[in-house]
Amino acid sequence: MRQRVADILIERARLSAALAKLPGVLRQLPSEGNFLLASFADPDEALRRVRAAGLIIRDMRQPMLPQALR
Predict the structure, then answer these.
(1) What is the pLDDT of residues 8-54, one digit of tens each?
(2) What is the rounded CA–CA span in Å between residue 52 and residue 62?
(3) What letter would DSSP give residue 22?
(4) Which of 16, 17, 36, 63 is the most exposed place for a label (fewest CB within 10 A)?
(5) 55: alpha, beta or left? (left if phi > 0; alpha if psi -120 to 50)
């Protein structure tokens, strides 16, 4: 289990760094979980592109987070 937790932490850091370099990402919220929550300039386009790449992403948009995807 400890190795799995270590792997998740490494992957979360790698993904966070990659997201920070994308022009459409407005900001990332701090995360202690096994997921990241980010705000996108065009969340519809981000959803389309990520899903087309076969990745799992959740639409988390709501009034307090109108551009958020997880």
Answers:
(1) 999 999 999 999 999 999 999 998 888 899 999 999 999 999 999 99
(2) 23
(3) -
(4) 63
(5) beta
